[in-house]
Design goal:
The protein has helices spanning 8-17, 276-285, 303-312, 464-473, and strands spanning 35-41, 49-50, 61-62, 68-72, 77-86, 89-96, 102-106, 111-114, 118-123, 126-128, 141-145, 151-152, 155-156, 159-165, 172-177, 185-191, 196-204, 206-210, 218-223, 226-228, 232-237, 243-248, 252-254, 259-265, 271-274, 299-300, 316-318, 338-340, 359-361, 380-382, 401-403, 422-424, 432-434, 443-445, 455-460, 481-486. It is mainly beta. The protein starts with 7 loop residues before the first helix and ends in a 21-residue tail after the last strand. The longest helix is centred in the first third of the chain and has 10 residues, at 8-17. The chain folds into two domains: 8-269, Immunoglobulin-like; 290-492, Alpha-Beta Horseshoe (Leucine-rich repeat, LRR (right-handed beta-alpha superhelix)). A hairpin with a 2-residue loop joins strand 5 and strand 6. The strands form eight sheets. Strands 12-1-6-5-4-7-11-13 form an eight-stranded mixed sheet, with no helix packed on it. The chain has a seven-stranded mixed sheet with strand order 10-18-15-21-22-25-26. It has a seven-stranded parallel sheet with strand order 27-28-29-30-31-32-34.
């Protein structure tokens, strides 16, 4: 099924004109011994793909060749395929047993149970953004043919919730029902006799759209119909991984076959917030926070909540392995001295305002850049296992432990790090490393560079024996390392000091 752009007026007219619409998907062929059959689908409005509007703003809804639908014959769920597609009509061909009543459902893959009384299916809570419509195979619908008829009139089972993107850099949008008992997606059961749709298994009160969002375009959630008496909350992730949120406590009704307008995503009408995963991880580590969370778990960065961060933020924050995609808002935790956000899914990390940090552990993420130039109090920096192509540590003169292995670094300047004791920079793309200014360095892993790249290590002749032992101790991490030995500028017996050549001061 292909979903294309349709104008707001046309799509609203099509969905609101009647509660009937349909959309179909795919799976395997029927079983041996069944009879080949052809069903007709096309009235009043079959809906598998949304077509562009004409010059007058009218839009047709068309089937797509290859769409598949499940048809229940009293015994089995049989896959039927849309063929001979002509605009809003199509024939569905496949094999099924002969009977008086057939129940059909789209999409085939979503149906977990089907008979002539009820249909159980899964509406995904994670949906893909498609400009002007919804993703393939998303919008479930059903039909029933009785008295031996082969004509199917599909009826839409779900509703659409529409919004316009007026913000830059949007990567994710989430719609949440404020009441925990409400369901927008998950396992749903449609009872044919009374036309009710209820959550019967695992349900989700949130639906999330992800993908590429274009400013000025309209997008749609496919949601379970129902009245949400507690209202809804909408949040989106924009530029820099920042989250923005807006909520209403007013009752909201989603009706099958109709569009509900949510409004526009824009910074002016939304409030910046900590995303739910970040906020939950903070509260789990430090239950003393008294901030006010939104129904979707986000925490608006209003004056009250900012004050709570200042009062209760503490000096240590442990957020390891919490499935966090963004730490936007971490800049308000200005008292932090240690931040551990290892093993998450961070693609950006702005710590430029956390100038009190002495320890930063952000290994095991997906960072491509990391600006630590203002963190002059750092003594420990562990950023291994990311995708960093450059790392400027020249201003971190207090650093004693630097672990930046398994990135994409092509060079590393540690000449100013006179206090450095531990250096792990293996598994990068480096060709050279000079450690002649690191007098206290005693633990080094610098080999095993990517693509079997040879690394040249420059060191003092007085330290060669020591470093030979160290390179052999970590033989795997120090493979493909050659050394350049420079003569020491001072005699080793004077502990790094030279005689001035003059007479004793006290005679």
């Amino acid at each position: 099924m292909k979903v294309k752009h349709v104008t707001t007026a046309a799509l609203a007219l099509l969905l609101a004109a009647c509660g009937n619409e349909d959309i179909l998907e795919n799976n395997e062929s029927g079983s041996t011994g069944k009879v080949h059959m052809t069903f007709t689908a096309g009235t009043p409005q079959t809906r598998t793909s949304l077509q562009p509007a004409d010059d007058e703003g009218n839009s047709a809804v068309h089937w797509t060749q290859g769409d598949q639908v499940a048809i229940w014959d009293g015994t089995d769920k049989n896959p039927f395929t849309a063929e001979e597609v002509s605009g809003s009509t199509a024939t569905l061909k496949g094999e099924a047993a002969e009977t008086d009543t057939y129940t059909a459902f789209y999409p085939f893959a979503a149906a977990t149970d089907i008979d002539n009384t009820a249909i159980t299916f899964t509406l995904p809570a994670a949906q893909t953004a498609v400009a002007g419509g919804f993703a393939e195979g998303l919008n479930p619908s059903w039909a029933q043919a009785t008295d031996g008829s082969k004509n199917l009139t599909f009826q839409n089972l779900c509703a659409l919730a529409k919004f316009t993107v007026d913000a830059e850099g949007v990567t994710e949008v989430t719609l949440t029902a404020n009441q925990e008992s409400d369901a927008l997606a998950g396992e749903l059961t449609y009872t044919i006799a009374d036309g009710t749709l209820t959550a019967t298994g695992s349900a989700s009160r949130s639906v999330t759209l992800t993908g590429t969002f274009t400013k000025g375009e309209e997008y749609y959630f496919v949601v379970a119909p129902g009245t949400l008496t507690g209202g809804i909350t909408l949040n989106y992730m924009g530029e820099g991984g920042k989250t923005y949120v807006k909520t209403t406590q007013s009752e909201v009704t989603f009706t099958a076959g109709k569009i509900t307008k949510l409004g526009a995503l824009d910074i002016a009408n939304f409030t910046e917030a900590l995303n739910a995963a970040f906020a939950n991880a903070v509260e789990e580590f430090n239950p003393n926070f008294q901030w006010k969370a939104n129904p979707d778990g986000t925490v608006s960065l209003d004056e009250y909540n900012k004050f709570q961060i200042i009062m209760n933020g503490g000096t240590f924050l442990f957020l390891r392995n919490k499935n966090i995609t963004s730490l936007a808002g971490i800049e308000y935790f200005t008292d932090l001295e240690t931040l551990d956000c290892m093993d998450n899914q961070l693609t950006t990390l702005d710590v430029t305002k956390l100038t009190n940090l002495t320890g930063l552990i952000c290994a095991g993420n997906q960072l491509t850049t990391l600006d630590v130039t203002k963190l002059t109090n750092l003594t420990t920096l562990i950023c291994s296992g990311n995708q960093l192509t450059a790392l400027d540590v020249t201003k971190l003169t207090n650093l004693t432990d630097l672990e930046c292995n398994d990135n994409q670094l092509v060079s590393l300047n540690v000449s100013t790090l006179e206090e450095l004791k531990y250096l792990w920079c293996h598994g990068n793309k480096m060709t050279a490393l000079d450690i002649t200014n690191n007098a206290y360095l005693g633990d080094l892993k610098c080999g095993n560079q990517q693509d079997n790249q040879q690394l040249t290590l420059t060191l003092w002749d007085t330290k060669k024996e020591f470093w030979d032992r160290m390179l052999n101790m970590y033989s795997d991490e120090n493979s493909n390392v050659t050394t350049i030995v420079k003569p020491s500028p001072v005699e080793a017996g004077h502990n790094g000091y030279e005689d001035d050549g003059g007479e004793p001061v006290l005679q």
